[in-house]
Design brief:
With about 140 residues, the protein is α+β, with helices and mostly antiparallel strands. It has a single domain, classed as Sandwich (Immunoglobulin-like). It contains 3 helices and 9 strands. A hairpin with a 2-residue loop joins strand 7 and strand 8. Helix 1 crosses helix 2. The protein is elongated. The protein binds 2-acetamido-2-deoxy-beta-D-glucopyranose (2 copies). One 2-acetamido-2-deoxy-beta-D-glucopyranose binds next to loops.
Length: about 140
Amino acid sequence: MINPFSRFLLVLVVALFLIYPQAMAMLGTRYHISISNDIRNDTVPLSVRCKSKTEDLGMRTLFPGGVYFFSTKIDFFRTRLYFCFNVWGQKSRYIEAFKATRDEKRCLYKSYCFWSAREDGFYFSRDNSTWVNEYPW
Ligand SMILES: *[C@@H]1O[C@H](CO)[C@@H](O)[C@H](O)[C@H]1NC(C)=O
Ligand SMILES: *[C@@H]1O[C@H](CO)[C@@H](O)[C@H](O)[C@H]1NC(C)=O
């Protein structure tokens, strides 16, 4: 026999699935985040270091064509945030590479958040073909 509290939780979860099918789909989705170095300059590489509040994904040096890649799922409260610190020569830029509240819908299309580092900034794309400069250097 199920205790009343478990029964309450079960009803709650079923209700959430019925009311927010898309929200529930986003919770189960694994999002892939890629940052590619599309700066056509092989004398100065791009260094990228991504972190969340609890996890350090490490620093990597990307030559042109190199890709920094990670993936994550979103939590129920949508607090997941990964930020990256990027250095290219004298320039540096902090970007929010994955932010659940901003990206859960826009990256759902291919479950990818694409970032492209270019001479004039960090471009975002949800489909790997249409790009917007969201973080100029
Ligand atoms: C690459 O970057 C360095 C340092 O900013 C610069 O001196 C050089 O001219 C650049 N090369 C090209 C091909 O843009
Ligand atoms: C994104 O596009 C680039 C360049 O066309 C390609 O090399 C890469 O494999 C694509 N990534 C995905 C995940 O489709």
